Amino acid sequence: MNIDEKYMLRCIQLAKNGLGTTAPNPMVGCVIIHKEKNIGEGYTSPYGGPHAEVNAINAVKNKAVLSASTLYVTLEPCAHFGKTPPCVNLILKYKIPRVVIGLQDPNKKVAGKSIEMLRDAGCEVSIGVLEKECREHHKRFLSAQEKQRPYIILKWAETINGFIAPVNAIRKKEPEPYWITNPYSKQLVHKWRSQEQAILVGTTTVLADNPKLTARTWKGQNPVRVVIDKDLKIPANYNIFDGSVKTIIITTIDDTSKFIDSVSYETATFKNLPKEICDILYKHEINSVFVEGGAQTLQAFIDTNFWDEARIFKGNITFANGIKAPSITGKQIAEKRILEDNLRILKND
To answer: What's the CA angle centered on 162, arms 161 and 166, to 5 degrees?
Structure first.
């Protein structure tokens, strides 16, 4: 690992501190080096706040040395006005002579403009340092920019014999949720919820479990709740309508008299629902979605190949009969034990 890669790796480490708070902005990391010493570093503030480069420059005590320093950043600095001014302007203001960029920004508002501005000002610019690692880190932002859809993570828990829920007859007698995994796995799921912009479930899941779909056992932001409710069957007193979190209902009904205040409604034809959902979420500037169920919803995303990751728990219990777990194939990238639970993570290859 050379010196540029060393500092870019630090940028990636820093950037992860923004997970779950910066979207729809990317979570960027930045380090400033002067005479082989780290004099300032930062990462993207929660959405609407300063970007990584601004935070790193502000952390430098003696601004005079910036004109003899190197700035490392995971993604090309922004070149446009948004919630904050362009970061490239601040770099130019302090005449930073060398900038090392992990990845060029595919956003049409940037797309090489900052690189051109820096080079025109006499700055030495290096691009593509740890590019593969930076792409993996920025996968949510890149999915929105390059595919015009959110990064899609599927998640479910199944029994040893491959069921995700007991038969409906049992659920009608005892409507409480049936936990397949242990409390530590459940807490991990809540951590994951806090890292993604949205969480998606189908009508059956809501009617069966009346979930809150929050990250209540983990400190962090609650995701936007996205619920498929084709015929508006879900009663108004259910938890998803408690007003605590932005909620989007996807339906075929366009009668606004049936809509609940403070809830966003989006109509779809349901002919290619995963694609329609992706289009709706992209319109809402949602860069990532955590699909938690049920089986029919998960399988629809799998069958239409609208998924990027799958996180599958296998609990140490069995059901005599029930709803079969989704069928999926992909490249396994990780496996771990959480007490008696087994977790596999797949990538769509």
So the answer is: 90
* Residue 171 pLDDT class (50, 70, 90 cuts): low
Residue 5 token pair: 């890669």
Annotated active-site residue in 53, 158, 196, 309: 53
Reported as a single tens digit per residue, the pLDDT across 293-316 is 889 999 999 999 999 999 999 999
CA–CA gap between residue 14 and residue 103 (Å, rounded): 16
Q: Average pLDDT, stretch 274-297?
A: 96
In this structure, what is the dihedral angle of CA atoms 121, 124, 126, 127, given to the nearest 10 degrees? 10
Write down the residue that tokens 């060393």 correspond to: 6
Q: How far apart are CA 343 and CA 40, in angstroms?
A: 38
Per the annotation, the verdict on 53 as an active-site residue is yes
pTM, two decimals, is: 0.92
**In Å, what is the CA distance from 284 to each residue of 209, 250, 287, 298?**
27, 13, 9, 21
What are the residues whose beta carbons fall under 8 Å from the beta carbon of 233, sequence distance 6 or more?
A: 203, 207
Helices (H), 96-224: 113-120, 131-137, 139-142, 168-173, 183-195, 203-209
What does the alpha-carbon distance between residue 259 and residue 120 come to, in Å, rounded to a whole number?
54
pLDDT confidence bin for 108, thresholds 50/70/90: confident
Q: Residue 325: which of 86, 161, 84 has the closest Cα?
A: 161
Return the SS3 of 180: coil
CB atoms within 10 A of CB 210: 16
First-to-last C-alpha distance (Å) of the chain: 28
CB atoms within 10 A of CB 182: 16
